[in-house]
Every structure is written in C-alpha cells, then in structure tokens.
Design brief:
Blueprint (H helix, E strand, L loop, with lengths): L15 E5 L7 H11 L2 E6 L12 E2 L5 H14 L4 E4 L5 H11 L6 H8 L1 H10 L7 E5 L15 E5 L9 E3 L2 H15 L10 E6 L4 E10 L2 E10 L12 E4 L5 H18 L4 E10 L2 E8 L10 H5 L4 H9 L12 E7 L5 E7 L1 H5 L4 E6 L6 E2 L10 E7 L2 H13 L2 E5 L1 E3 L2 E4 L4
Parallel strand pairs: 1-2, 1-4, 2-3
Antiparallel strand pairs: 5-8, 6-7, 6-8, 9-10, 9-12, 11-14, 12-13, 14-18, 15-17, 15-19, 16-18, 20-21
Helix pairs in contact: 1-9, 2-3, 3-4, 4-5
C-alpha cells in the first residue's frame, strides 16, 4: 500500500501543510504537486516579494532571522491552523523544528535539527557517541592555517559548516595546499545564511572508498530505509561533484546493513525522531563512515527515483507521515538511476545539444535540462546548481548505469564567454 487518500479534518476542511522553502529550491514544486494529489492545502513560506510558487497566500519570511520568521509563522497560525510543517532544505530545518515545537505538531526538537544541519556540531556529537566519523577539526578562515592544522593528517578535506551540494568541499594533500585554499573557501562560506557559519570551516581526514546515499523516513524514532544509492564513480577530489546515483545498491548485503544501522544510530545520537532523513556515507575498510545525516529529503530532482522503488512518490510519503498517515514501502521491482548533469566549466549557456538523441537511449525515462539559455554556469566548488537530470530504469543496476552513461555521452554543452566589465572571464567552448 502506498500513501492512503487524505481524510479531511474533523471539522471538514482539508488538511493544511506549512511548507518552509528557501527561494529557488528544487524541492518546492514536487512538494506542492504531491500536496495537490493528496488533497492537502499547502502554504509556502519563503523569502522574496513573491514567495509562493503555487498560488496566492504565501508567507514572506526573513529566513536568516529565525526569531522574526518564527513569529511571522506563529501569527499566521493564529489565523489559519496548520496540521503539519515540513522543511524542504537544510536552510529551513531549524525553523521547522521551532514551529513544530511551538504549535505542538509532529517534528524534531530544535536541538536535533541544529545538529543535523551543522557539520561541525554533527561530527562532535557522533564522535562522542562512538560512531565512525573521520578525524576532524574546526578552523578559522580569517587566520592562517599553519598553527591551526598542526598534527592533522593529510590528505584532508575542507568544507563550509552548513552549505550543501558539495559546495566549497575541496581536498588538500598538504598543509601548503590547504593554506592556498583558505581565501577561496572563505569567499564561498561568506554566502552562509548565519553569521557564525561564515568564518569557520570543518577539516576532515580524507577517507578512500566508495560513497553511498541512504534515503529514509523516521517515525517515532524508528528508521525505515526507502533506498540505498550507490555512487559508482570514486569521489577522490579535488572537488566532490555528485553525478550518478544508482539503486538498489550492489555492495555486499552485510555492508548495506551496516550503513543502515549506522544511520539509525546517528539519528538516535542527534535526537531525530520524525520525518525524512538523507544520509551520505563512505564505505572504507569494512565500515560505513558517516559523512552527513540531514533531516530532509534527497536533493535536486533525485526524489523521483523513489517513485520507481516505492508505489508512491517520496513527497507524498513525507506529507502523509507528517499528517499521521500510515505509509509502507513497496520493494523495488526494477533498478533505477539518475545522473545529475555536472557543470563542465564556467560560461554563459547557449544550448545543450543531443538531448533528443540521449532520450532515445534504451532505458532512459527522461532527459531534463534545468537551466535556460543565458544562464551563467559556475562549476563546483563555487557553483551550487546542476545543468539538469537524466533518469533511467532497467532490469539491473548495471544496466541503469550503462544507460545513463550512454545518454550522457550524447550531450554537448555549448557556452559563450562570461563578460564582467568588458573583461572575458571564460572562453567559449563546446
């Protein structure tokens, strides 16, 4: 059984969902569509003059100002009752927890939500709980690293405390290489929404091995694993752009069980009890090392993969669970995969050629280009968006991966130079 049809409240009105979403979030539209399919009234709270994507009635917030945003939402709740609150992205996880607590709605405590969003606090929490995390240290980006990294192992990975999508995550193989990255990472971290996150970064010892991503749902503290995704390309740096996600996993079953157990242990350590969980782990030396456990769904359009693996979409399941509906997983019949199209270089997008050819590759379900002509492309580690997505379904994970690679080989990205004050920043390439 998938998510059951939504019942009305005892007063006869539709259930009302408060959706907290940063502007430009990939996840907002899928949640709105899911709410519409379920007969749930969704109100989006975001930042901007026109915060609502789906219609009138949205709430305008100053998201970095948690206290002010919380008061705005509580004032709105006094006029229109909310039956559930969901955060679409890391930026709004803290706020959602405070709203849930104030309105006595299902959700996580603010303390647990903060641990799930802040990489430095999360590492300390997991280490104290005795869980496998890389050796780590917080560094001040305003001061030279020479004294701050004394005794730290290399190679290492530096990352901002709270940015997502691998933005600002860079490998350094020596103290000198790390110092050369300091100002670059500081410029990226300057975009962090909260002041305390703009001047510090997290250092982690680099771990070899392959990464996996786990998608799950927490219900009263019990973790239900919805999917375990392989990332078949080794992520060795210097940047860590995520591209291929393939499910079901092809790693040994004992290692898959270990990954699920580690995520469940991490949730308990944080105090997470309700809602979606997206975790990233690195498989190394027979262990599943915890890299991230976030209190949100998977990024981009990747949640569409779970419509292949479960009867209903991921967003329907998250909404249903938040409203107290019983939901259960359906084992995947086929394998599925997604390729998050990487930004190959800096430039102004002219066009992406070969889309029709790629869509005709056997096993490909969709090729979607998310950015339009004229958009300035910025690759990692400074960039934060993908060109688009390719989706595949096949009889086996290997066949799904092969289809994605064949389709990707059909695409050609054409860019023009970037001009800033008459100066060419990037040359045209095809």
């Amino acid at each position: 059984m998938g998510v059951p049809e939504q019942a009305r409240t005892p007063t006869g009105r539709p259930h009302r969902l408060l959706l907290l979403a940063p502007p430009g979030s990939y996840r907002t539209v899928p949640y709105l569509r899911a709410a519409e399919r379920l007969g749930v009234e969704a109100v989006v709270a975001s930042t901007g003059r026109h915060p609502l994507i789906g219609g009138p009635g949205g709430l305008n917030l100053d998201l970095p100002d948690l206290d002010r945003s919380l008061q705005t939402l509580l004032n709105a709740a006094s006029d229109q009752r909310f039956d559930a609150v969901i955060s679409t992205d890391d930026l709004t996880v803290d706020l959602a927890a405070h709203v849930a607590q104030a309105l006595e709605l299902p959700g996580n405590t603010p303390g647990a939500a903060r641990l799930a969003r802040r990489k430095d606090l999360a590492r300390s929490c997991l280490a104290e709980a005795g869980l496998p995390v890389p050796e780590h240290r917080v560094v001040d980006l305003r001061r030279p690293f020479v004294d701050q990294v004394d005794g730290f192992p290399f190679p290492c990975v530096i990352k901002p405390l709270a940015l997502s999508g691998s933005r600002g995550v860079i490998r350094a193989d020596s103290p000198e290489a790390l110092e050369a990255l300091r100002l670059r990472v500081a410029a990226i971290a300057a975009d962090a929404p909260f002041p305390e996150e703009r001047h510090h970064a997290l250092l982690e010892a680099y771990l070899p091995g392959f990464e996996v991503a786990l998608e799950g749902l927490l219900d009263a503290g019990k973790l239900e694993v919805l999917a375990l995704f392989d990332k078949p390309d080794p992520l060795e740096g210097p940047y860590f752009e995520e591209t291929y996600y393939i499910t079901p996993s092809r790693h040994p079953m004992a290692l898959q069980r270990r990954a699920a157990a580690r995520v469940a242990e991490a949730c308990r350590a944080y105090g997470l009890r309700e809602g979606p969980v997206h975790a990233e782990l690195r498989l190394h030396d027979g262990e599943a090392w915890l890299l991230e456990v976030a209190a949100r769904t998977i990024g981009g359009e990747c949640a569409r993969l779970l419509r292949v693996g479960v009867e209903s979409g991921l967003e329907e399941r998250v909404i249903g669970q938040a409203l107290g509906q019983a939901v259960s997983a359906v084992p995947a019949v086929d394998a599925a995969g997604v390729l998050m199209l990487p930004t190959p270089r800096r430039g102004v997008l002219r066009r992406v050629e070969g889309v029709l050819e790629a869509s005709r590759v056997p096993g490909i379900e969709a090729v979607e280009i998310s950015v339009r002509e004229g958009y300035e492309l910025v690759p990692l580690p400074e960039g934060e968006s993908y060109l688009g997505f390719i989706f595949a379904r096949a009889a086996t994970p290997a066949a799904a991966e092969k289809a994605l690679r064949r389709a990707y080989a059909c695409l050609r990205v054409v860019t023009a130079p970037v001009l800033h004050r008459g100066r060419v920043v990037a040359a045209t390439e095809t």
